[in-house]
Amino acid sequence: MDTMNKDFCCDAMNLWVQDRDCPFMYNAYDRYYTMSAPKSLMKKNVVWPCYKVHFCPFCGTKLPKNLVDERFEILEKEYGITDPYDTKQKKRIPAEFMTDEWWKKRGL
Ligand SMILES: [Zn+2]
Predict the structure, then answer these.
(1) 63: which of 7, 11, 94, 104 is 20 to 30 A away, CA to CA?
(2) What was the pLDDT predicted at 75?
(3) 8: buried, middle or exposed (CB in 10 Å: 19+, 13-18, 0-12)?
(4) What is the reported pTM?
(5) Which tens digit of pLDDT belongs to each residue from 40-71?
(6) DSSP 8-state symbol, 25
(7) Domain locations in the chain?
C-alpha cells in the first residue's frame, strides 16, 4: 500500500519535514521550503538564519514555486489584510490561509 503523502516529491522529504531534528522545513500555508536550525532548537532561540531551498536535497526534484506573493495578494484583495504579521490583522485571516487548503482549493 502506498502511504506516501503526495504533497512531497519523495519519502525522504515526507519524513524530513516532520522530523523535529531535521533542519529541513516546509511551510504548508505558503508552500515554502527552507533550511534552518533543527526544529527542536527553534524554540530556544527566536532568530535563526533561514535558507530557501529550490531542489530536494535527496531526490533532486525541483520543488514547486512558493506561494508567498499569491497569499499576500489574495489576503489583501479579498480580505483587506495588508499585513498578515500584524497582531490585529492576523486574527482576521481565514483558517484556510493558515494551512495548504487555500492554494489546493484554487489549484495553485
Ligand atoms: Zn525528493
Answers:
(1) 94
(2) 97
(3) buried
(4) 0.82
(5) 787 777 778 889 999 999 999 999 999 999 99
(6) E
(7) 11-52, 68-105
CA of 94 relative to ligand 1 center, distance in Å: 31
The CA 106 to ligand 1 mean position distance, Å, reads: 24
Cα of 92 from ligand 1 centre, angstroms: 35
Q: How far is the CA of 45 from the centre of ligand 1 (A)?
A: 29
17: nearest Cα among 2, 45, 36, 1: 36
d(CA 75, CA 77): 6
Other beta carbons less than 10 A from residue 3's beta carbon:
6
Q: At 57, list the grid cell.
A: 536535497
Give the three cell numbers for residue 54.
Answer: 529550490
